[in-house]
Write a structure and sequence with these properties.
Blueprint lengths: L22 H14 L10 E7 L5 E6 L5 E5 L3 E6 L2 E9 L10 E6 L3 H4 L1 E8 L2 E12 L2 E14 L12 E3 L5 E5 L38 E7 L5 E2 L17 E4 L7 E4 L4 E6 L17 E6 L3 E2 L5 E2 L3 E2 L1 E4 L4 E5 L26 E3 L17 E6 L20 E5 L5 E6 L5 E6 L9 E6 L5 E5 L11 E7 L2
Parallel strand pairs: 14-18
Antiparallel strand pairs: 1-30, 2-3, 3-4, 4-5, 6-7, 7-8, 8-9, 10-11, 11-12, 12-13, 12-14, 15-16, 16-17, 17-23, 19-20, 21-22, 24-25, 25-26, 26-27, 28-29, 29-30
């Protein structure tokens, strides 16, 4: 359901984000992270963390309406509403969803006109059907009506074990909806490197069949424009034109492994997302680079490398899984999909690098990210408004910060980028505090940050919470 990897995954029912890598390696990294620690120091007086609601079971996604109401979804299908005028949680729907290892109710986004039209978009598993659906529902008289469902997209899943499901949803100011989908490829048969197995019957260990396949929904960020009648149109500027039998016109970004949480910065015209990466601890001259989690940003459609390259376009090598012999390195400038499982174009757009990437161990370039298990996710960008009459709004010092967060490591960092989208500064939100596995962040109309803390364990936590971080002044 949440981002899968090997060493750092989001919960599943048994381990929720089924990943690769051994339990021993995961435990060792977790111990290293605990020893390093983020500390339990007192947060600065400028911000305060407030718990708005508890008693949640696997809360996974939320959005904030223009009138300040917060809609929150649990992975198992319950949707609740928190109203600042009448605090407390009110259940408005219980959807019937498939909740296999990484599936469930994964994404939720309110239409920009939600206050008047009541439209809620959900990305969810489907019982008895091997697909995740992007559906629109309508809230009527305070309740979400299941009968109002309009299915916009059907994304194939797989048997026997769904993984890398994605689920990020975000609207831009033009009303275009972005959906992140995972690559649905095994994470435990490639020794932490790129899964590029071309042998017959090994298609689930080949991400070229999905993330690098221009005719497949998975391993992508899709962009559509929902229409009032429950259909959608294709916005101008997507990666491929309509009418190409070997490419889907809905694709905005390809070459993704598991873009679980994404956000659109309206004033900046930028799409941000975190991509949960593989788990190789060290580079291997026969295989390629070590594993990295990545943060990406773009203003235009493009290809972002997976499974041919990672981080700052470090290439993997061709590898014969039968003979265990390495071949040539892939060329990020001219990636070619040679897989027998490919149903799309052979020649692909050039790969674009991440703007921030980090390994299981400490990062020399960005020490603020710490070390240990990883699950990178991207949140909103804050634009301070002196004219906003709200005592809760974040201070001006956070102006221009994009909030990046890591589910496993428990941090939320403000990141400032320059005109070339390079990181110029990272700053922890609530210095000295460690969040309990943050899994979704949104800004409210009051200028405060609303977030879900999944809780201390991988599943069925007793300390999951809806939280607000606001000015303490």
């Amino acid at each position: 359901m949440v981002p899968s990897r090997q060493v750092g995954r989001v919960p599943s029912s048994r381990g929720w984000l089924a990943g690769c890598g051994s339990v021993l390696r995961l435990a060792a990294l977790a111990v290293a992270f605990a020893l390093q620690g983020l500390g339990a120091g007192r947060p600065p007086s400028g911000l305060q963390r407030s718990v708005l609601a508890e008693g949640l079971r696997e809360p996974i996604t939320l959005d904030v309406a223009a009138d300040g109401r917060v809609m929150l979804a649990e992975r198992r299908g319950r949707i609740v509403l928190w109203d600042p005028r009448d605090p407390g949680l009110r259940t408005i729907a219980s959807l019937n969803v498939f909740t296999g290892p990484e599936d469930g109710l994964l994404g939720l986004a309110l239409h920009p006109g939600f206050v008047t039209n009541g439209w809620v978009f959900c990305y969810h598993g489907t019982p008895g059907v091997l697909e995740n659906r992007l559906s629109r529902f309508t809230v009527k008289e305070g309740l979400l009506d299941p009968a109002s469902q309009r299915i916009l997209l059907r994304v194939p899943t797989r048997i026997p074990k769904p993984n890398h499901s994605g689920g990020g949803l975000a609207f831009d100011p033009a009303g275009h909806l972005y959906l992140g989908t995972g690559d649905y490829t095994d994470a435990d048969r490639s020794e932490g490197f790129a899964p590029l197995d071309h042998r017959p019957g090994q298609e689930f260990n080949d991400s070229e069949r999905t993330a690098a396949n221009t005719a497949d929904w998975r391993g992508k960020i899709l962009r559509i424009h929902p229409e009032p009648d429950g259909t959608y149109t294709i916005p101008a500027g997507n990666l491929f034109p309509a009418g190409d039998p070997k490419a889907l016109p809905e694709i905005y970004a390809m070459g993704c492994r598991n873009p679980f949480r994404l956000s659109f910065d309206g004033p900046g015209g930028r799409l941000f997302w975190g991509d949960v990466g593989p788990d190789a601890i060290q580079p291997d001259p026969e295989r390629g680079p070590a594993g990295f989690d990545e943060f990406h940003v773009t203003r235009t459609a493009g290809n972002f490398g997976w499974p041919y390259s990672i981080a700052d376009n470090r290439p993997y090598r061709r590898f014969d899984f039968g003979t265990r012999r390495a071949g040539e390195a892939y060329d990020p400038e001219h990636p070619v999909n040679e897989s027998p499982f490919n149903t799309g174009r052979r020649e692909l757009p050039p790969a674009r690098p991440a703007f921030l990437w980090y390994p299981p161990g400490p990062s020399a370039r960005w020490p603020e990210v710490g070390s240990g298990p990883r699950s990178a996710m991207a949140g909103p960008t804050y634009h301070f408004s002196a004219g906003l009459d709200s005592p809760a709004k974040l201070p001006a010092e956070w102006d221009g910060a994009t909030f990046l967060f890591d589910w496993e490591r428990g941090w939320i960092l403000g990141a400032w980028l320059d005109g070339q989208d390079r990181v110029t500064r990272l700053k922890p939100l609530l210095t000295g505090a460690k969040f309990r596995r943050p899994i979704c962040l949104r800004l409210g109309p009051d200028g405060a940050l609303y977030l879900i803390e999944w809780g201390s364990r991988w599943s069925d936590n007793t300390d999951a919470a809806l939280v607000r971080v606001a000015s303490a002044e």
